[in-house]
């Protein structure tokens, strides 16, 4: 499905306070891992079978792009089969690569393209065309690639890659797994050792999956708790099957809904529990949420478990800034939880939220304010004075601003609130969580 600002939006949706949410649902595959599975399988030699791939719009854009670069990608029954081209062997795409709404697809692919001797052109939807690309073009240009972007280093852009890439050594100025991954992926086809230093650890799915495909990735710790990641270029990736866990960032929405709607009890099997992704679970527990993990195991190189969530009275929380990378996509729905909790919450260090699919800091504040919550921003912190109940909350119209996570957060607000919440466009939910509305309805939600 194409989404342009001029295209008709999916009509207004209403989320209403239901009875208790109950049942078991399987949330779709992890978005971060799904992008990486398609990219690395396309760079591998041989055939990779992926189970549990997220079939959301963002990931389908990555599949299209990798096909345009020469990989063979097909869906067979409920698995995805990829015949890779090998590192250095991608072919010039015949048309512009359209990454849709996906910053991850655009940034990671920029890294891969920078160290291939091909010229390509990349664009995205209105949201992605407004997002900063300098964070990847600036370091990647150091390997010999050339980027021509719009003013402000925005998409569309042309990428003139090099087959003789210099390995990069780069210290991340922002905590971004996308930037780290772009540099590591560029290094796969550079002669010599690529090095990335991250002062704060960010999700390590690229490192894990590179190892899974047979690439030696070394990770050292800095004295201040950061990480130094190195890999040797001119690498050979050997095809290996991938099992994608359910996405903890998607699980966040039913988890917060079940925590807030009295009498709820839900079970979410096979959710990814990579410790660099579980900041929300830690935070919700600090708020008094009842969130149990059963059957912890390792699947496809990533820890997973079955989550059981029961409703609970939540209290306000103070979330430290250094936790942000492990829950960066979960702040909108955490802010919803804080609006219903008793007492003050302070969510610290949210500057990166300003450059997501929307300016999520101001969009989350607008979501809460439109629905009667008491919220303000001080510097990069969001402060929410929780109501301690559903009373008087809801009744607003939420503008989703082409942002899937805002749409789902607004629906969760509506399920917990006294008054219904209107959402202007739920179409973007398909970028990361196809089936969200029907899965929530299966739990008893009224949508
Ligand atoms: C992602 C990294 C994060 C996150 C995004 C997915 C990834 O972005 O917000 O949804 O898959 O690497 P940043 O790297 O910009 O923090």
Automatic annotation (TrEMBL):
The active site is at residue 329. It is an enzyme of class 2 (transferase). Phosphoenolpyruvate binds at residues 31, 103, 131, 178, 360, 405. Keywords: Amino-acid biosynthesis, Aromatic amino acid biosynthesis, Cytoplasm, Transferase. Pathway: Metabolic intermediate biosynthesis; chorismate biosynthesis; chorismate from D-erythrose 4-phosphate and phosphoenolpyruvate: step 6/7. It comes from the Bacteria. Residues 17-438 form the Enolpyruvate transferase domain. SUPFAM superfamilies: EPT/RTPC-like. Its main location: cytoplasm. Its EC number is 2.5.1.19. It catalyses: 3-phosphoshikimate + phosphoenolpyruvate = 5-O-(1-carboxyvinyl)-3-phosphoshikimate + phosphate. 3-phosphoshikimate binds at residues 31-32, 36, 176, 178, 329, 356. It is found in: Cytoplasm. Monomer. Catalyzes the transfer of the enolpyruvyl moiety of phosphoenolpyruvate (PEP) to the 5-hydroxyl of shikimate-3-phosphate (S3P) to produce enolpyruvyl shikimate-3-phosphate and inorganic phosphate. Belongs to the EPSP synthase family. This is 3-phosphoshikimate 1-carboxyvinyltransferase. It comes from Asaia siamensis. The lineage of its organism: Bacteria, Pseudomonadati, Pseudomonadota, Alphaproteobacteria, Acetobacterales.
